[in-house]
């Protein structure tokens, strides 16, 4: 669909600095999808990653962070005001919501 996803498992090679690669990936991406589940919401690393791009969104006024709800969980306070793509009941519907956000 014209978007090239950045995924740490694909981009970080043996010997690379993980924090440097992740930081560069976040800086260079147009959109950051936050996959929300009980485990990800409890992860300090995940929070640092999405909150970095969130402040880019605040400064630019353009949508950069798209929440994706995979499982019922406590959505972080800064993301509660955003509509999320909902994958809990139907994968196809959730994917359609993401694609609609990226294309518009």
Shape: globular
Largest sheet: 3 strands, parallel
Total DSSP E strands: 3
Provide the CATH top-level class.
Alpha Beta
Structure, described:
The chain is mostly helical and 104 residues long. The chain has a single domain, classed as Toll/interleukin-1 receptor homology (TIR) domain (Rossmann fold), CATH 3.40.50. Helix content is 47%, strand content 12%. The chain contains five helices and three strands; from the N terminus they run H-H-E-H-H-E-E-H. The chain has helices at 8-11, 18-28, 38-41, 44-60, 91-103; strands at 32-36, 65-69, 85-86. It has a three-stranded parallel sheet with strand order 1-2-3. Helix 2 (18-28) packs parallel to helix 4 (44-60). The longest helix has 17 residues, at 44-60.
Secondary-structure topology with pairs:
Layout: H1 8-11, H2 18-28, E1 32-36, H3 38-41, H4 44-60, E2 65-69, E3 85-86, H5 91-103
Helix pairs in contact: 2-4
Characteristics:
104 residues, mainly alpha, Rossmann fold, 5 helices, 47% helix
Write a compact overview of the structure shown.
This protein has 104 residues and is mainly α. It is 47% helix and 12% strand.
């Amino acid at each position: 669909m014209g978007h090239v996803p950045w995924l740490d498992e694909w981009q970080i090679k043996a010997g690379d600095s993980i924090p440097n690669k992740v930081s560069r990936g976040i800086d260079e991406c147009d959109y950051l999808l936050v996959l929300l589940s009980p485990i990800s919401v409890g992860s300090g690393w995940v929070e640092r990653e999405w909150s970095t791009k969130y402040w880019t969104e605040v400064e630019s006024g353009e949508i950069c962070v798209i929440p994706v709800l995979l499982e019922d969980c406590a959505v972080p306070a800064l993301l509660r005001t955003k509509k999320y793509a909902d994958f809990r009941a139907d994968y196809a519907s959730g994917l359609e919501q993401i694609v609609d956000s990226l294309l518009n």
